[in-house]
Write a structure and sequence with these properties.
By secondary structure, the protein is mainly α. It has a domain of about 80 residues. Helices cover about 85% and strands about 0% of the residues. The radius of gyration is 17 Å and the shape is globular. It starts with a helix and ends with a helix.
Length: about 130
């Protein structure tokens, strides 16, 4: 268990640094934009890499690297990749209704939770 947690922590540190650098890089190339393109880019690239790694790991017997790569590096890079993988897993299992509910609840719940947290935080310091 300690080895797995160490892999996740190490990978998470790498992923978080990569996320930061990707955001800085997109900003430097494109400048300020109305849409947060750094976050959007990281989410799409992270999801692509999650799918690629999941397929390659399953085919090549590399699933033992999942804590490091999937949970750690890609989880630190973007949690959206894990969300995307879980959504596709539900779809592939034929659970389209549950997948739709999961997507809707995740997006609305996350945005709503953030709004509630902002409100609570702002009220605490008002």
């Amino acid at each position: 268990m300690i080895l797995t947690l160490s892999q996740i922590a190490f990978g998470g540190a790498i992923g978080a640094v990569l996320r930061y650098l990707a955001g800085v890089g997109v900003f430097r190339v494109l400048g300020p934009t109305a849409m947060p393109l750094g976050v959007l880019s990281v989410n799409i690239v992270g999801s692509l890499l999650m799918g690629l790694f999941a397929a390659v790991a399953a085919h090549r017997g590399l699933t033992h690297l999942s804590p490091l790569v999937m949970t750690g590096i890609l989880g630190g890079f973007t949690t959206f990749s894990a969300f995307s993988l879980e959504t596709v897993t539900l779809i592939e299992r034929g659970q389209m209704g549950l997948a739709t509910f999961y997507v809707g609840l995740s997006v609305l719940g996350s945005v709503g939770g953030l709004m509630l947290g902002l409100w609570l935080g702002r009220e605490a310091f008002a």
